[in-house]
Amino acid sequence: MKTWEEATDTVGMIAGGLIPNYHPDLSTARINYVFVSEASTKGGLKVMGRVKKLAGFLEWALEGDYVIEVAQDMWATLEPHQRTALVDHLLERCKGEEDEKTGEMRWKVREPDIQEFSSVLDRNGAWHSQLAGFVSIAQKVNLDGLLQEEEADLNDEKVEATTNGASDSSESST
């Protein structure tokens, strides 16, 4: 059975660093961050997180505009930069627009810029403008640099594990 718990100290802390720089329209949004114990699936794929816009009774009862739900079992497998990317992705789904007449913020959930199958991209290339824009950005990403950072992190973890393992065994013998 799935369980939920507050995730403000972890997910909310990451979001707090991202909102001022990349999501300023959310600066006044009331966002509740929760972990769900295990990922749900959609189309046979695990869902790492989801955004729910609150309205009516739930908006009042939870004193919030959104709930950002993160699958704790998936979160536990992510590296720190992947956790940041997941939170960034979920925040990007949230959109605030000021109502010109009332000045109140109107909250929405938006869809990602593109939705496509890798096999269609492989067979047909970037066949529409949104996909072409996404591919163009992806080509600019320094994948070599990212891979080198991940390898360095893994090497650091191996050294740390070896060092900790040696100190743990010496502590247990005393």
Describe this structure in words.
With 174 residues, this protein is an alpha+beta fold. It has 2 domains: 1-111; 113-174. 51% of the residues lie in helices and 21% in strands. The chain is built from 7 helices and 8 strands, in the order E-H-E-E-E-E-H-E-H-H-E-E-H-H-H. The strands form 3 sheets. Strands 1-2-6-5 form a 4-stranded mixed sheet. It has a two-stranded antiparallel sheet with strand order 3-4. Strand 3 (40-42) and strand 4 form a beta hairpin. The chain starts with a strand and ends with a helix. The relative contact order is 0.11. Residues 161-174 have low confidence and may be disordered.
* Secondary structure: helix percent: 40-55%
How many E strands?
8
**Strand adjacency order, main sheet:** 1-2-6-5
Spell out the helices and strands N to C: EHEEEEHEHHEEHHH
Largest sheet descriptor: 4 strands, mixed
Number of domains: 2
Mean pLDDT: 85
What is the CA-CA span between the terminal residues? 43 Å
Structural class: alpha+beta
Low-pLDDT stretches: 161-174
Q: State Rg.
A: 20 Å
User: What is the overall shape?
Assistant: globular
Strand content: 15-25%
- Count of DSSP H/I helices: 7
